[in-house]
Amino acid sequence: MTGQIPDPLSPGEQLLPGYEVIDLLSRGAALDVYEVYSEERDCSVVAKVIRPDRRDVPRVHRRLLQEGRLLQTLAHPHLVRGSAFCTGRRVPSYWSRR
Description:
The chain has a single domain (14-97), classed as Phosphorylase Kinase, domain 1 (2-Layer Sandwich). It has one helix at 58-73; strands at 14-16, 19-27, 31-38, 43-50, 82-86, 93-97. The chain is built from 1 helix and 6 strands; from the N terminus they run ββββαββ. The radius of gyration is 13 Å and the shape is globular. The termini are far apart. It is an alpha+beta fold.
């Protein structure tokens, strides 16, 4: 891939309406993982989103959706449980309680 990799969102920016970035937790080859504040849930949640430069890669979309769906079905005290999917400028994404 050529070109410049877009910067991740900064603290205080809105990931989606009602979800404010607190911190970038991780930046991988295809995904960014943020700690965000959810106004609806009134708590900190983790959001995993596709990087802007990888939005057009179908495999990345499929893998993220597969992971999110799987996390919504699992229930174990040592696993994070996925709580929602959303669409927005960095689609798809999902988040879970921190």
